[in-house]
Amino acid sequence: SNNGLAARRWYSTNHILPDGRQIIVGGRKQFNYEFVPKNIAANTFDLPFLFETNDREVENYLYPFVFLNVDGNLFVFANNRAILLDYVKNKVVKRYPTIPGGDPRSYPSTGSAVLLPLKNLKASAIQAEVLVCGGAPKGSYSQATQGEFIGALKTCARIIITDPNPKWVIETMPLARVMGDMILLPNGNVLLINGAGSGSAGWEFGRNPVLNPVLYRPDNKIGTRFETHTPTKIPRMYHSTAALLRDGRVLVGGSNPHTYYNFTSVLFPTELSLEAFCPPYLEAKFNNLRPTIVGPNSMSGISYGKTLTFEMEIRGKVEEKLVWITMVAPAFNTHSFSMNQRLLVLGNDKITALGESRYNIEVRTPRSGNLAPAGFYLLFVVHQDIPSMGIWVKLQ
C-alpha cells in the first residue's frame, strides 16, 4: 500500500522535520532514507555515509543519532563520525571529524546522544552542540559472542555542530556505560541512566549492570559536570527505556536480553517493573523555590515568533535573573536513543510582580520550524534550576 514504507527497515531512526513530515534514516542493509508521508512515489534516497560506517560482520551503524540542526539540515551520526545532510537536495554539506580513539557508539556498540539545549534563540546565529556518551570498544560485539565481555567506553564526546571548524572535546564519565539512555531534563541538565559496564547490545551480550544514574551539567566547567546518584536495585540491560514525565521525574522500564520472556534461571530475567527516578530538584527542601504555572492552561496553542505571557507562583524569594522557560519535545525512546528529543531555552524577557507570590513572565516563542518543528511540547518554568510541573502546548 501507499501508506507503508518504501523499504523494510530494522533499527532505523525517525525525526520530525520542519515541514511536519518524518524522515526515516537507515536500518539493516538500508543505506538510504525516506519520508512519511511520501512527497512523491515510493522513493528512497541513497545515503552512502551509512554504507561507509558499516563495520563488516558487526554493523555499528544502526539506530543512527539524528538531530535537526538550527539551519534546517540534519546532523547524522553513525559508528564514530557524523555528517550534516541537506535532505532536500540529498547532499552532504559537511563532514565532521571522527571521534578521537575511533571506537564505535552505534548499535550493537550502543552509546547514546543528545542535542544539548538550544539557547539565545533571538541571536542571528544560534549555536547547536551534540553530546555523545558511552558505547563499546571496537570488537566488543564479536568478543561477546565468544563469551568475552570487554569493558564499555568511559568517554563522552561533545562537538559544536554549527562551528565552521568543529572539533570533538572528550570528557570522562564516572562510570563506563554501554546501552545507557540520555534524557534531557527540564532545567537543561542531562541524565545518563540504564545500561551495562561491559559487553555489548544484542541478546545476552551485556554484563555488569550500571545501577547508578549520573547527572551531567553541560554549563559547568569541564571536570565538574558529572554527578553520580543513588543506585537502583534493578538491572536495566538490553531493551530498557527511559522517558521524561510532566512532573520532572524520569520513567524507567524494561530489560529483556532474551529472545522470549524469560523469568527464571537466567543472569538478567525479563523485567516487567517500572520505576521513576527523581532528580535532585524534586527534593522537598526546594519546594519554596519551585514555580507553579497558573496560566495558560495545559493544551494551549502557541505560534512562532510571538510574545507569550505566563502567570506563575513562587512562594520563596525570586531571583529574577534565574527564572527561565524551557520547552521539551517528547521523544520516542528505544535501544538507548531518544529520537526527536530536543530542548529549547526560551529564557525570560520580562518579569512583573503581581503580588501574593504571583508573577507574570514574558518570553518569545521560537521563530521557525528549524528551531522547533510544529507539534506538542512540554513547557516548564525553571527557577534556580528547579522546574515547575510541565504543561503541554501545541506549537503551530
CATH hierarchy: architecture of the domain at 285-395 = Sandwich
Give the beta-strand count: 33
The computed structural class is: mainly beta
Radius of gyration: 21 Å
State the distance separating the first and last CA atoms.
Answer: 30 Å
How many individual helices? 2
Mean pLDDT: 97
Could you tell me the CATH topology label of the domain at 285-395. Answer: Immunoglobulin-like
The gross shape turns out to be: globular
Q: Can you give the helix content as a percent range?
A: under 10%
Flag low-confidence runs.
none
Domain Galactose oxidase-like Early set: 290-394
Domain Glyoxal oxidase N-terminal: 3-281
Pfam family, one: GO-like_E_set
Protein name: Galactose oxidase-like Early set domain-containing protein
Commentary on this structure:
With 396 residues, the protein is mostly beta strands. Helix content is 3%, strand content 38%. The protein has helices at 48-52, 140-145; strands spanning 13-16, 22-25, 32-36, 45-46, 65-68, 74-78, 81-86, 91-95, 112-115, 129-133, 155-160, 169-172, 181-184, 190-193, 196-199, 206-209, 214-216, 226-228, 240-244, 250-254, 274-277, 292-295, 300-302, 307-313, 323-329, 332-334, 337-339, 342-347, 350-355, 358-364, 375-383, 386-387, 391-395. It is globular and about 70 Å long.
